[in-house]
Amino acid sequence: MFPENQNLNNHVLTIRHSLDGFSFAVFDLESNRFIFVKDVCEPNLPLPYAIKWIESHYNCSLSDFNKVTVLFDNEKHTVVPSSLFNLSAKDKYLELLGISEQDGVVCNDVLYHAELNNVFSVARDDFDFVSQTQHNMSYHHASSVLLTSIISDNVARGVNIQGVYLHIKENKFDMTVVDGCNLLFNNTFKYKTKEDFLYFLLFAIDMLHLDAATVPVFFLGMIEDKSQIVELVSRYVRDIRFVRRDNAIAMSEEMEETPFYYHYILFKSILCEL
């Protein structure tokens, strides 16, 4: 339940903003657990209006919270190894993807533990909003949390262990492949049918010379464990898993039934050091 009519100074608000809509979660610093999460399907809603939606529906203000984190979830980003990264030339990395300065403001997340830099573009109005809002607000790209958390989770499974992680969204999915703490592959695929989904997955597995019979494939994001996609993939991939909640993240009793993998990025953001 959203903590209405309470002192929000002991709470952290995390917002994931995308063209498909936005979602947000509230973390209670005193009880050290998540107490609320919600998806809002409002496509193409600029970030300031998404904030107003939250404030008006729950009678609160961003300034009430101890901390507010905005996670921009768009396809305008690319990952660069830190050893090759040049901050003064960060715009050039996105130009290689056909993204110009006119498309927005170019930003950069440093993924220290992964030794990567994530360069991304944010719409000018959204950037101005987060830059000029209260001191308690920070922003990152959602994929920075995703990559940092996936690599951390994979390392926890053991040294030199490979894993394929599929973050499911509306008609697209992020595919991340790691070997121990090393990022091997990261890309976003758009699909219309479950057969499209399977094709992109198996193509990438084959390209990376992985063994579909042994490599574990982890699902996260908005997908049901009995979905047609999972059923089809299971015919070709033997080791299918859904990302489980780690012990460091607690939930209120009302949220215990919410699958952790649904909101993996929101939940892991509280532990992510960026």
In brief:
The chain has 274 residues and is of the alpha/beta class. It contains seven helices and 13 strands.
The fraction of residues in strands falls at: 25-35%
Spans where pLDDT lies below 50 across 5 or more residues: none
Structural class: alpha/beta
Most strands sheet = 5 strands, mixed
Strand elements, count: 13
SSE run: EEEHEEHEEHEHEEEHEHEH
Textual characterization of the structure:
The protein is of the alpha/beta class. It has a domain at 158-242: Protein of unknown function DUF3822, C-terminal domain (Nucleotidyltransferase, domain 5, 2-Layer Sandwich). The protein contains seven helices and 13 strands. The strands form three sheets. Strands 3-2-1-4-8 form a five-stranded mixed sheet. Strand 9 (162-169) and strand 10 (172-179) form a beta hairpin. The radius of gyration is 19 Å and the shape is globular. It starts with 10 loop residues before the first strand and ends in a 6-residue tail after the last helix.
Write a concise keyword list for the protein shown above.
alpha/beta; Nucleotidyltransferase, domain 5; 7 helices; five-stranded mixed beta sheet; 32% strand
Describe the secondary-structure layout.
Layout: E1 11-18, E2 21-28, E3 33-40, H1 47-58, E4 67-72, E5 77-81, H2 90-95, E6 105-111, E7 116-122, H3 124-132, E8 137-141, H4 142-157, E9 162-169, E10 172-179, E11 182-190, H5 194-207, E12 217-221, H6 228-233, E13 240-242, H7 264-268
Parallel strand pairs: 1-4, 4-8, 9-12, 12-13
Antiparallel strand pairs: 1-2, 2-3, 5-7, 6-7, 9-10, 10-11
